[in-house]
Amino acid sequence: MALRGVWQLQKLIVSYSDWGGSSRGIRAFMELHLPAFKEKNPQLEVVDELIRGQHPHLKGFYRKTPSLCAFTAKCFCKVQGRIYFAECTGNKNQRTICVKNMDPEEILLHATRLRNALGRKVVKLKTRHVTKHPSVQGTWTTDVKF
Amino acid sequence: MANRRCLHTLSRRAWTLFSTNTSIPSLRTLLSLPIQPNKPIASQFGRGVTTRCPHPRYFSSNSESEDVSEDDDDEDYDEEMDDSGEDESVGNSSASGLKREYSPEEREAEAAAIGYKVVGPLERSDRVFKPYEAVFAVVQIGSHQFKVSNGDCIFTERLKFCEVNEKLILNKVLLIGSSTQTIIGRPIVPEAAVHAVVEEHALDAKVIIFKKKRRKNYRRTKGHRQELTKLRITDIQGVEKPEKIVTAKPTKAAEKKPEKVPVTA
After folding, report:
1. Which residue of B has its CA nearest to A75?
2. Smallest CA–CA separation between B1 and chain A, in Å?
3. How far is the C-alpha of B151 from the C-alpha of B219, rounded, in Å?
4. Residues B181 and B259: beta-carbon distance below 8 Å
5. CA of A132: which chain B residue's CA is closest?
6. Which residues of A touch B156 (CB under 8 A)?
7. What are phi and psi of A92, to 5 degrees?
8. Terminal CA-to-CA distance of chain A, rounded, Å?
9. DSSP labels for B170-239?
10. Side-chain half-sphere of A27: how many Cα atoms within 13 Å?
11. Contact (Cβ atoms closer than 8 angstroms) between residue B174 and residue B189
12. Are B81 and B42 spatial neighbours (Cβ–Cβ below 8 Å)?
């Protein structure tokens, strides 16, 4: 995911066990798909972690510091002189996905989903259109004359 | 049973071919020829001479003994084999996660049908995120329409052919307006373009679909997460944009008149 061009997923921890059968899929994933995934996402820090006696999982860490817009090098929230951090603050979010007994292709799908996501809390959408300026020509009232 | 049907068809058609020279090794070489499972089964059976059974494991060593013809039923068996073959191919595709390989032309055609076009990945050198301009457009993606402006975010159904951090052009624009001009499309405005950037491909919150029929001992619970794409609108082109400097009043009155005419028309 990219908020104004800045990737939000910073770190991905791939935890697996070298003995357990539930880690078979993720071990195959690490051989087959993980190198290509790393190459496609150079901005992402991928770490392998060996945890014995536990089921495997993927952990994603999302951006903590306010993300400056990558394209104007300044935070858009400062445009009107006041500082709105609503959009710029990263959410310091962690997402854990248990991948026990999954196929390597499914694990790749989950890793891609983690990378594509914003990390924000998943709540039901109020509207499908989020805007700060709802009206361009002026909101109509009964007093408006054309 | 299916193996015997397949062999019947094959042996019946091969019988005419090899009627003069039916030796077991040659029949076996015909059966062991390479099979292309991706070709539709119907076309395979449509060819007269070069029919092959799709699954080599159905062959048995007793092919010669089963040549006794049940010719009356073979045509029905052919149709049943076609149906079962197609079902299997469909089943295989669903098992692999419905991953259809789209050619670039197919991708563009399908994307254009929905109403967008992928331009390319976002470069670091692009200055795409501009401050707010007083221009709006009504744009259609798939079956949903949105009134968008610069800097807005839109959640649409998952767009298949674009990745995160890619630029899009939405070409199905139904109406464009600014503070000085309004253009109404019939049904779309041909020269207009709305630029957007893909921000996110994510899943919506889970909705639980609960079905119940009272006093009938029937209760079902199903969870569903819709796949969404978040687009950020960066630019709207195709309409004259207002200048930032405040214009004098007589020019404002003159400009408001052309705005009124298209609306009433």
Report:
1. B129
2. 34
3. 45
4. yes
5. B152
6. 128
7. 50, 50
8. 44
9. E--EEEEEESS-EEE-SSS-TT-EEEEEEEEEEEPPPEEEEEEETTTTEEEEEEE--EEEEEEEEEEESS
10. 12
11. yes
12. no
pLDDT in tens, B44-78: 444 444 444 445 555 555 544 444 444 444 444 44
Least confident of A9-23, A105-119, B8-22, B133-147: B8-22
Q: Is A140 helix (H, G, I), strand (E, B) or coil?
A: coil
Residue among B129, B134, B147 whose CB faces A4 most closely: B129
CB atoms within 10 A of CB B213: 9
For residue B176, what are the contacts with CB-CB under 8 A and spacing of at least 6?
B135, B136, B137, B138, B182, B183, B185, B189, B192, B236, B238, B239
Contact A71 B124 (CB under 8 A): yes
Q: Do the chains contact at B201 and A117, CB–CB below 8 Å?
A: yes
Radius of gyration of chain B (CA): 31
Is the pTM higher than 0.80? The answer reads no
Contacts of B148 in chain A (CB under 8 A): 129, 131
Q: Mind telling me how many Å the CA of B211 is from chain A's nearest CA?
A: 21
What is the Cα Rg of chain A in Å? Answer: 21
Which residues from A are below 8 Å from B183, CB to CB?
none
pLDDT in tens, B210-255: 999 999 999 999 999 999 999 999 989 888 877 765 545 554 444 4
Report the amino acid identity of residue A33: H
Determine whether the interchain pair A1/B199 forms a contact, defined as Cβ–Cβ distance below 8 Å: yes
Which residues contact residue A54 at a Cβ distance below 8 angstroms, ignoring those fewer than 6 apart? Answer: A15, A17, A20
Question: Does the beta carbon of A80 lie under 8 angstroms from any beta carbon of chain B?
Answer: no
Assembly ipTM: 0.80
DSSP state of B169: E
Nearest to B137 by CA among B167, B172, B92: B172
**Which of A1, A70, A136 is the closest to B200 by Cβ?**
A1
**In the predicted structure, residue A108 carries a pLDDT above the cut 90:** yes
Residues 6+ apart with CB under 8 A from B35: B52, B53, B54, B55, B56
Measured in degrees and rounded to the nearest 5, phi and psi for residue B235 equal -155, 145
